[in-house]
């Protein structure tokens, strides 16, 4: 049996808002949000880890490149569990690289490095972990996108209006780079 908690973000969540409280979540039962064509499921975040890390999955269809962005104070991990995901990253000296990641492959993006990704196969899934002194960004997904109560991908992509990218609160440590160009492909 899993419990549901009321949180500052949702009427009901399987994730307790208090740090230091052990819990278990069944597959897919975390806090969900739709952003672009993807389903993001949060399993642990800032409230549970005293703002030291978050743990989430991103599932999606083959699709478009997620916009270039960076996290000034957050390190991010990409671990592919299904499908294929192309990760684009630029180091702090401006050197760009890309890599096709398939199940079992790992990608690491240091803080302050522009990056983006694209699902290359339908039903791709990435396990993400983000950590850093700036806090965590898991609530960014439902604030830019839309909270989702149901399982599954969005019926229609949730694409924010262009001006909304500039309004992402600084507390989420996400800075979009609308004019960024990838030279790798």
UniProtKB/TrEMBL annotation:
Alphabetized Gene3D superfamilies for the sequence: Jelly Rolls
InterPro entries: Cupin_2, QDO-like, RmlC-like_jellyroll, RmlC_Cupin_sf
Coiled-coil regions, chain positions: none
Residue ranges of every copy of the Cupin type-2 domain listed in the record: 61-119
Pfam families for the chain: Cupin_2 (PF07883)
UniProt-recorded name of the protein: Quercetin 2,3-dioxygenase
Organism of this sequence: Streptomyces ficellus
């Amino acid at each position: 049996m899993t419990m549901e908690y009321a949180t500052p973000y949702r009427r009901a969540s399987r994730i307790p808002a208090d740090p230091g409280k052990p819990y278990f979540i069944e597959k897919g039962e975390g806090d969900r949000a739709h952003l672009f064509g993807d389903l993001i499921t949060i399993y642990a975040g800032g409230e549970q880890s005293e703002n030291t890390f978050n743990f989430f999955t991103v599932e999606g269809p083959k699709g478009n490149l997620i916009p270039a962005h960076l996290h000034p104070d957050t390190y991010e991990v990409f671990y592919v569990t299904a499908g294929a995901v192309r990760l684009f990253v630029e180091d702090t000296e401006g050197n760009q690289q890309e890599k096709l990641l398939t199940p079992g492959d790992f990608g690491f993006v240091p803080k302050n490095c522009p990056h983006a990704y694209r699902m290359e196969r339908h039903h791709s899934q990435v396990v993400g972990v983000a950590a850093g002194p700036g806090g965590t960004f898991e609530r960014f997904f439902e604030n830019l996108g839309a909270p989702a109560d149901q399982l599954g991908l969005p019926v229609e992509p949730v694409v924010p209006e262009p001006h909304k990218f500039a309004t992402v609160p600084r507390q989420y440590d996400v800075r979009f780079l609308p004019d960024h160009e990838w030279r790798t492909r």
